Amino acid sequence: MIEAYLPIFAMIVIAIVLGVLLLTLGRLLGPKRSNSEKMSTYESGIEPVGTAKARISVKYYLVAMFFIIFDIEVIFMYPWAVNLREFGVSGLVSMITFALLLLVGYFYILKKGGLEWN
Amino acid sequence: MHQYIFLTILFPLAGFLINSLFTLTNFLGWRTKERETLVGLFSSLMIAIPFGIVVAIFLEMLSEAERPAHLVEVYQWMNTGLMNVAIAYQVDTLSVLMALIVTGVGTLIHIYSIGYMHGDDGFSRFFSYLNLFIFAMMNLILGANMVVMFLGWEGVGLCSYLLIGFWYDRKFEGTAIVSTGDAAKKAFITNRVGDFAMLGAMFLIFQTLGSLNYTDIIAKRDAFDGTTVFWITLLIFIGCTGKSAQLPLFVWLPDAMAGPTPVSALIHAATMVTSGIYITARLSPLFLMAPQTMEIIAVVGAITAIFAGTVGLVQNDIKKVLAYSTVSQLGFMFLALGVGAFQIAIFHVMTHAFFKACLFLGSGSVIHAMHEEQDIRKMGGLRKYMPSTSTTFFIASLALAGFPLTAGFFSKDAILAEAFASGHIVLYAIGTVAAFCTAFYSMRLCVLTFLGEERFNKSVAAPTTSSVAEQEPGGGHGDHGYDAHDDHGHGDAHGADGHAIHPHESPAFMTVPLWILAALSLGAGFLGLPAVVTEHSWIHGWLESSVMQAEAAHHLSHETEWILLGIGSLVAVLGLGFGYFVYAMRIEIAASAKRSLAFLYTTLLDKYYIDELYELLFVRPVQWLSDKVLFRFDTSVVDGTVNGIGDIFMSLGNGLRKWQSGVAQNYAVAITFGLILVIAFIAFR
Amino acid sequence: MLNDLLLTLPITIATVWVLVLILCEAFVHNANLTRWLTAIGFAGIIASIFLIPSPEGYAYGTMLRTGTFTNFSNFIFAVSGLLVVSISDKYLEEEEINFGEYYIILFISTIGMMLMGSAANLSVIFIGLETMSVALYTLAGMLRKDVRSNEAAMKYFLLGSFATGFFLYGIALIYGATGELALPRIAASLQTNGVSTLFWIGLSLLMIGFLFKVSAVPFHQWTPDVYEGSPTTAAAFMSTGSKAAAFSSLIIVLSNISIALPNNAVLQTAFAYIAVATMAVGNITALTQDNLKRMLAYSSIAHAGYMLVGIAAGSNEGYSGVLYYALIYTLMNVGAFGVIAVLERHRTLTNASDYAGLFKQHPLLAGLMAVFMFSLAGLPPFGGFVGKYKVFAAAVEADLTWLAIVGVLASVVSVYYYLRVVIFMFMRDPEPAPQANANATGSFALVAIAVIVFLMGIFPTEVLKLADNAMKVALK
Which of B403, B632, C115, C415 is the most exposed place for a label (fewest CB within 10 A)? Predict the structure, then answer.
């Protein structure tokens, strides 16, 4: 039983050894010459503008969350669509129920003004 | 009739619930006199009806030739698992007699309280507590198994706590305590010690028998071996020393006087404190199997009797005198139990309930008249203002002193005779001396309160006043460390209150109960006439079916018994006479005796320094440790071992609080540690 | 399919009703209406449990269990929800968070609990746990403008997810060890294939998920912070419903596993030690708490310890004791939090000393609080005593007498901090009087709770029989 895990164990060991080895090598062999240019923020060669902690409107997050919810709905539909014939009528009913549940949520969002941008 | 016994439990409960409702809905918001009387009469009725029922049961049993114990099961409380607990009541001669005392005296004290508590903010709260107390007490004495008994036992403890602390905002100065709240706490905590012992005894019994019914315990008592029965009885007795204020756990009772006076009369004189005697009598067959325990009980009882009796000699607070007197009388009762005279002990419980309740209620009447003054050195000459109170007080004092043919005479002399007959000559002698002290301080109390010169409108500390020659010079007592005494006349501390006191007789609500109790103090003794008069007194015949006496019924020859009776009478009369002589005629004797025996006097006044001893043994070491060993460890005032333990828990708790850093990462670390522990334990054990 | 819907009627009702609630809130947008509808929903669930109790068996394959155990646990959750709704309205209005969503989320959380209490499959337990927890995280942060509430939500979410991670990992390992997710089949697999170390590790991780939810030591530290920060009514719900759900799930898992591993000494000892640590830490720390909600939080840790005593007993007696305890604890703790919720306003009345003289201002509420405190302290004749008696007696029967003694001592310690509140209310005079006002519905609900707590102490036999019965049939 435990032998079956040997490849995984070997994988873990290799990953650890490799990681430690590469970092250590880089630190030991690499030259260390720091100057102000090197220490500055890297923004693809363009001069840094402002602070990184900009405030973003919470609306973005709302939209992102809504997107995820309805995205996942679609993901659930793929396996169902592939096995449509095996699942038959009960599968269809289940999927319709599932979609209806999300529809209720959609109406809620709509009425609460979750999609209004102002 | 006996099947209606549960009504005697239900009525006080209903009274409590309805009174609580009054309280919670602020029924007395207008605080009119009519409403007070209504609440008071209602509560009294809730006790009077059970009294009527108990009387009916009593009369029914009286007419029966055989008086078997009736078991009345109300319902199965917890009918599952290991132990089935039934709410069941046992109606036999013992419990009926106790129920008569509790409801009878209880009714009188309820009625008295209507007058006494008049105008108090907590009027309906007071009556709801009183009803709750009667409810718990009835469970205690009527319960057919030790579980119901213990529920009642805890219930009366709770009520006692609530009622001692009833005037929680008042100051009360006792030893090492400063407020009524502290006094209540002291009573509660001291009683817990005894309760644990009682619980231990119940566990031992249950372990052996698998049942806690009295009938089972007594029927199957042969199942216990000698050691078990010794430990069971000893633990029960320790429980009783807490509740019934015996050495060494008596310290709470004198401080319990912080409660309203009817409470002192009902709980701390007539009923609750005698529950220890009741339990012992109830399990008398078990106790008779443990002679060592019996010896311990007899010795503890006798020592408590003399100890508290001597302390009572010099106390100056009218209620403190009575409190120590109660402790002393309870000592007598335990002496009786210890020598195997269980029925006599119950007899004394009864007579004591009458005269001590009367005394306490009388003192309440006096305190009422004196505007909350309790120092007998500031009374005197009250006889002409309060004829009813003084007469009843005198009668009850005579009964307490054991004056021939009063109630106390018969019961106390029966105890001493039994002690003598069972061969405990030393204990007999101690008891006789204690009886002398009792007579002496009873008379002292009467004389200083009711006779002589009126001292209440004078400054007590005035050293020139001859009548207060007993008064020590101001501050002459302050050389032992602290001055938390309740009764040291430190000059202007009490002094003239600025306005004169005009004593007056109390209303009829208060005097009628006094007269009834006084009559009982005179007459109740004839229920237990000594063997020399009737071979079989009524009380023996009554209790025969429920309380076992020691086998050797201690038959004394008639001559010996007459001699003992004579000695008893002589001691009482001498004590009373000597007390009268000293305090009414030659007050200077007391003063000079105090000077020449200054050491003894202060020792007595300070109750043999028992409180200080506890302070020294338990409290100070803890304080010293925290002061000296844990540098500048800022302790709050530690006033008891229990608080010491409490402090340990508190510091533990404070330590654990530090663990609660508020940082989520640290919590995650703790979870991870827990995870490692659990996996290590379960998966790789 | 239709049959399954009927077999799990409470869950079906709840799921349909929550859609109604959401649509109602979306279109009508009236918090009071939503509150009433939520209460009706809970009442409907309770009614359906009594009117159409589900028969013994499985629904949706072997996904859900039905029968007496499920009925009993569903009842606890619905009661918890209903009571919390009934004490909420005044508090929410005072705190200006009277949103219909509060009630909807509460309701959704209850659906998660019901799934946990009727699961027969580890994946269902997980779904139930997450449905419940995510809703609770939201409730914790309901006071949006309050920093402590935000902190509470954040902490609860972070640590809850942390624990859920372990839980899921445990499920994975158990699946790896036995190849099954359905609990009866896991037991069968253990019986035929034996028990591997992998399974034990998985079970430990699973247990940690539950122990976190019931706030057992050392997984308890989130509790005081979260209860203190959350809206009081939400804390009442977290401390009762979610705890009962975690315990009923734990009982389901353990009773199934005990078919394969009867009277496992290692599990018993592990739970006994955790119970001791939980009782000790909960009670001792509660002694030093001035803040009443924190005190109640530690007290809820301590009560989890008492219930773990029943779990450690590992017998039907113990488990049914836990069920009874969960019910009575739900009642008395919602009551205690309810008194606070009815009185407090914008984080006033936080310390026990703030309740000084409450008796003079609100004698009724003070009396009710005293009942709840006495019952929590386990004093007879209140229900809390019977609960403690039952679990401790089960421990004695399972030869864990020492554990029962520790439990009794711990509850003796607890009397101190409960009575302190009572002493403040009855035996101290009010400081400059705090502005406190109570409303009728809340007070009425609290009176009803107090009466039931009292009755469950005096006439416990019938309810105890129900709890016993729930275990007897569930554990064949």
Answer: B632
Question: Which chains does A contact via 3+ CB–CB distances below 8 A?
Answer: C
Q: Say whether A104 and C23 touch across the interface (CB within 8 A).
A: yes
**For the residues C406-412, what does the mean pLDDT come to?**
87
Buried b (16+ CB within 10 A) or exposed e, C334-347: bbbbbbbbbbbbee
Residue B59, pLDDT above cutoff 50? yes
Question: Domain locations in chain A?
Answer: 2-29+57-111
8 A C-beta contact, residue C142 and residue C230: yes
Chain B contact probe: residue of C204, C261, C456 with most B CBs at under 10 A: C204
Instruction: Give residue C136's pLDDT.
Output: 95
Q: Where are the alpha helices (DSSP H) in C314-400?
A: 316-343, 358-361, 363-377, 383-397
C459 touching B (Cβ < 8 Å): yes
Q: In terms of DSSP H, where are the helices of B339-386?
A: 342-369
Q: What is the distance in angstroms between the Cα of C461 and the nearest Cα belonging to chain B?
A: 6
Task: Kindly identify which residue of chain B lies nearest to residue C153, measuring between CA atoms.
Answer: B664
- Six token digits for residue B592: 């000079």
- Give me the CATH topology for the region A2-29+57-111: Methane Monooxygenase Hydroxylase; Chain G, domain 1 (1.20.58)
Largest Cα span, chain C: 71
Query: Does residue B460 or residue A110 have the better pLDDT?
Result: A110
Contact C26 A101 (CB under 8 A): no
Reply yes or no on whether the pLDDT at A5 is more than 90. Answer: no
Give which of C50, C106, C53, C45 is closest to C78, Cα–Cα: C45
Q: Is the pLDDT of residue B191 over 50?
A: yes
Dihedral pair phi/psi, residue B317, rounded to 5°? -90, 125
Q: What sign results for the dihedral spanned by CA atoms A34, A37, A39, A44?
A: negative
Assign 3-class secondary structure to B54-106.
HHHHHHHHHHCCCCCCEEEEEEEEEECCCCEEEEEEEECHHHHHHHHHHHHHH
Does C22 contact A108 at a Cβ distance shorter than 8 Å? yes
Closest CA to B121 of B170, B70, B155, B82: B170
Q: Which residue has the higher pLDDT, B55 or B524?
A: B55
Who has greater pLDDT, C412 or B629?
C412
Interface test with C, best of A93, A104, A112 (most C CBs within 10 A): A104
Are residues B80 and C464, on separate chains, in Cβ contact within 8 Å?
yes
Using a 10 angstrom Cβ sphere, with 0-12 exposed, 13-18 middle and 19 or more buried, the burial of residue C391 is buried
- Give the integer Cα–Cα distance in Å for A3 and C5: 46
Q: Which residue has the higher pLDDT, B44 or B635?
A: B44
Q: Average pLDDT in the B293-303 region? A: 92
User: Distance between CA atoms of B242 and B17, rounded to whole angstroms?
Assistant: 29
Average pLDDT, chain B: 79
User: What is each CA distance from B296 to B299, B303, B326, B681, in whole angstroms?
Assistant: 5, 11, 20, 51
Distance CA C207, CA C274 (A): 11
Output the DSSP codes for C27-53: HT--HHHHHHHHHHHHHHHHHHHHHSP
SS3 A3: helix
Facing residue for B678 by CB, picked from C204, C386, C458: C204
Task: List the one residue out of C401, C410, C424 whose CA is nearest residue C378.
Answer: C410
- pLDDT tens by residue, B435-487: 998 998 888 888 888 887 777 766 544 444 344 444 443 333 333 333 333 33
Q: Provide the 3-class DSSP secondary structure of residue B606.
A: coil
Residues in chain C: 476
Closest CA to B85 of C213, C169, C95, C390: C390
CA distances, C217 to each of A83, C129, C182, C297, C298 (Å): 47, 20, 29, 13, 11
